[in-house]
């Protein structure tokens, strides 16, 4: 007999004794590479995964973040795409019309840098890589709809990226402004804030500096409040928090200080309750009023300080523990509520991107202000009493809540109440206004490089900035470009690109030579997938209405504050412009973990990079797929181990032998019905478990369940139980293959075909389960005290005698019957009764 309590199995250990070769002969060897290539060609010829809207099935748009054209699929790609494919295949078997497209994020710096290093055009480099990656993708067995393939570097795609820019420009969502920019001296390009990690370029890790340039921006800040709303989205809490913090909504008051000369200087604060504690004002070095406010005797010192801070990053300027620096401008302002003079300083810990770029220094209640005041000998005035404060000097800033002191008419208020009262007072007396500020900055989309979508703008000396007419799109990248590490776009040197004609007056003009950030390409590609071959418009509205939003989006959490935020913004903007009807691009989001090697992130410098192609050629793609899904929880990642993948290969070989060695056997006469029933129970419990696991992306526990079912079936073969060939056996084997189909599509297809079942297994329905077979069988136990029935217990079949005795003794009726008595014996008759005997 078999039970649900099977021996623990680990693939690395094998299953000794669970499966012996039977007398009918050993099955042929499992030749995975040969089988996989056969079925890949068959599926492609049959367009098995092609889908359209001419269906009565519910839609399921399954999308992975498309890959950059690096040239090779590494194990991280597999870890993203293989489990995602398993889930999409499962949804197809559940009756959904599944669209799972693939494309390539093909613009960007790496291709251009490779062109500089190797002397080959970026387009050639990129297309070679796409060809290589396309073949590698096919070898994984992922069920992409290849008829929808796109690449963002093709004019047929970036024409519509340029169209998107023009719609934003017409709507006032795209604008040009002189602004400080993050500059990577190695990549020779401007970086968005999100592309600077701890003061360094996210791609090459060079220290980032600042430059002032005319830049093109998308006004994402217009959607800041809406981007804080995640209603209806099934997204990881961590991603929501990251986006919320990045947007950084702050409610406060913009208070107008005036200089002694009478000019206004607005300052934003979230703590108006501390305004009586202001002892200085600090401006960011980039603040436009600094030159005007600096007196002649301080001008040289202030200018030198500004030059020094130009090379600092925002991360460096706000680093905890960094010594505060600054210079006095020589100018004083007046506190509008106290009338006191406060000096105006320039300090690099103040950022130009938050609030007004000016802060009121309250050393007693802000740690950074306290450190600054201590460094330069500025007064510290307490206006919120810390607990047990008796007027003594503070040793550090107190930033908590408390009772207002030293604040005139507001003394005695609690600090939360004071914030309300003082804010109202400021507004009533026209000293400022309540407002909301955001940490989020507008999206810088200008890049001073060649390999990107050209910004469709023309400059005319007579007419100014002009949009390229839509009928002239795409503005194509020229071929006659010269790459120089000068910081200027190579397009500035192109004689076939730069000169053009003004669309307004017909006179001579020049093109914009910046190209767009590649995140613009990926901010709308999910819409293009809905109708990728449209030539007269970016997408078919009817197709978009059918497929959008994406039902399941999968990719790395590192894109939380870049791609995912940009895609939401672009979708909302296109909605407001009337081009789409959805509010959000991705209904569900899953972020997978990382595959490590030896406990470390894989890198060439460590020499721990795993090349999946080597394993595909020897063990097969199904083994790699299953091993990656078995590593551990998908959202947490796991550590690659060669021994572990061999264990998975042995498991798949065991499935192979089990099916082929038994599929031609007939059921013997007089097979045991109780064993058949147990097989059915185990089969249906496995189906239920696998269904619940794959729905929640718990592939590791799903595969563990399939291993247990396989081991149980193998044991029955080895014990010659006489169950092989019975209806229960056939149901178990077919269910096993159907459950394996999303994980190991080639193996399941081959064995399904060997059983003579209809092509294709991937077009079959996911197996259902019978709740009555899943329910654990129960038994009723009579409870006696000295032979007299006192109660009944209903417990799961197989409950141990010790457990039943403990349950019986805990029953209220039994406790009353034995109160004051001594238990001399307990007699348990298995599966029938328990008798508690008291007395001598």
Largest sheet geometry: 7 strands, mixed
Q: Report how far apart the termini are.
A: 42 Å
Helix content: 25-40%
* Discrete helix count: 26
Structural class per helix/strand content? alpha+beta
Structure description:
The structure is a single chain. Helix content is 35%, strand content 19%. Strands 10, 11, 12, 13, 14, 15 and 18 form a 7-stranded mixed sheet that branches. Strands 2-1-26-27 form a 4-stranded parallel sheet, with helices on one face. The chain contains 26 helices and 34 strands. The chain starts with 31 loop residues before the first helix and ends with a strand. A hairpin with a 3-residue loop joins β33 (823-829) and β34 (833-838).
Brief overview:
This protein is of the alpha+beta class. 35% of the residues lie in helices and 19% in strands.
Task: Chart the SSEs and their pairings.
Blueprint: H1 32-46, E1 59-64, H2 75-93, E2 97-99, E3 103-104, H3 109-118, H4 122-140, E4 150-151, H5 155-170, E5 174-184, E6 189-191, E7 196-197, E8 200-201, E9 209-218, H6 224-227, H7 237-247, E10 249-259, E11 264-269, E12 280-283, H8 290-293, H9 299-309, H10 314-317, E13 326-334, E14 341-347, E15 358-361, H11 367-376, E16 384-385, E17 403-404, H12 415-428, E18 432-438, E19 443-444, E20 446-447, E21 457-460, E22 464-467, E23 499-501, E24 508-511, E25 515-516, H13 518-522, H14 525-528, H15 541-547, E26 552-555, H16 563-576, E27 589-591, E28 595-597, E29 600-601, H17 612-618, H18 621-630, E30 638-640, H19 642-662, H20 673-695, H21 699-718, H22 727-740, H23 745-754, H24 771-774, E31 778-785, E32 788-796, H25 801-809, H26 812-817, E33 823-829, E34 833-838
Parallel strand pairs: 1-2, 1-26, 3-4, 12-14, 26-27, 28-30, 31-34
Antiparallel strand pairs: 5-6, 5-9, 7-8, 9-19, 10-11, 10-13, 10-18, 12-15, 13-14, 16-17, 20-25, 21-22, 21-24, 23-24, 28-29, 31-32, 33-34
